[in-house]
Description:
Layout: H1 3-13, H2 19-25, H3 29-32, E1 45-47, E2 52-53, E3 58-61, E4 65-67, E5 72-73, E6 78-81, E7 86-88, E8 93-94, E9 99-100, H4 108-112, E10 119-121, E11 126-127, E12 132-133, E13 137-138, E14 143-144, E15 149-150, E16 155-156, H5 161-164, H6 169-172, E17 180-181, E18 186-187, E19 192-193, E20 197-200, E21 204-207, H7 209-212, H8 215-235
Parallel strand pairs: 1-4, 2-5, 3-6, 4-7, 5-8, 6-9, 7-10, 8-11, 9-12, 10-13, 11-14, 12-15, 13-16, 14-17, 15-18, 16-19, 17-20
Antiparallel strand pairs: 20-21
Amino acid sequence: MSEKGSSNRDSATFKVVPAAATVAAAPTKRASSGPSKAAAVKPPTTIHPSAIVADKAVLTGSHHIKIGANTVIHPFARIISSTGPVTIGENVIVNERAVVGIIENGDEAFTRDSSSRSVLIGDGVTIESSAVVEATAIGEGSIIDIEARVGIGANVGQVSHELLYVLPLEILTDWPKYCKLSPKASVGAYVVVEDFMTIAPPDYRRPDHLLKFNPSIRTLKLKRQKDQVELLRRLIPSNLAKWS
C-alpha cells in the first residue's frame, strides 16, 4: 500500500475531537438535577419575646400559631397549623423531632369533626422527642413521652370542646391536668383521658393519686419545669426574627 493511502486511513480512523466540543456536549450536574422543593409555608405567628424557638425548628401552615412565654421549641421540632390554629402555653418544652399539629393524611378521623382541627397545649407541658400530638387539647403539666402519639380530636385532661372555644388559655390551664403518656404509648382519635392519668402500652391506665391529692407536689413539678426552661435558654440559640 502506498504511503499516501496509509496516511489517509490513519487520519479517518483517529479523528480528533476538540476538547471544547466535548465539554459542551456533556450535561452538567446542575442541569441534570431535578427541580428544588418548594419552601414551606410561613404561618402567621404570635410568639412571646421570652420564648425560645431554635433556628432549625419548623413552623409551617396557613393558620395562626401562638407560642407563650418561656416556651422552648427545640431544633427539628415541627409545629403544623395546616388544618387549624395551634396554641402553645407557657413553660412548654417541645423536644427534637416532636410534632405538634395535625398531619394531613386523608384519615377518616380528620374529616369527622372540623372543630377538632385546632390544637391547644397547656402550660408546663413536656412533649418528648419524636412524639406526635394531633390532639384537640393537652392539659397543664402533662408529659407526652418519647415516640408517644395522641390522635386527632383526643382530649388529654378533659378540656371540653365547648370550653376550648369560649374560655381563654389562661383560664383553661389554671385547672390541674397532669397526665402522662409513657414512651410509645398511644391515645386514639377522639379519646378523652381523665386528669392525673398515666398511660402505658399496650393498654395500661392508672390514676396518679400522689399528684392528684398533693397540690404541693404539682407546684414543685411546675417549678422544676421552669428551671429546665432556664437551663435550655442557655443552651439553645433562639431565632424569633425568622418567624416575625
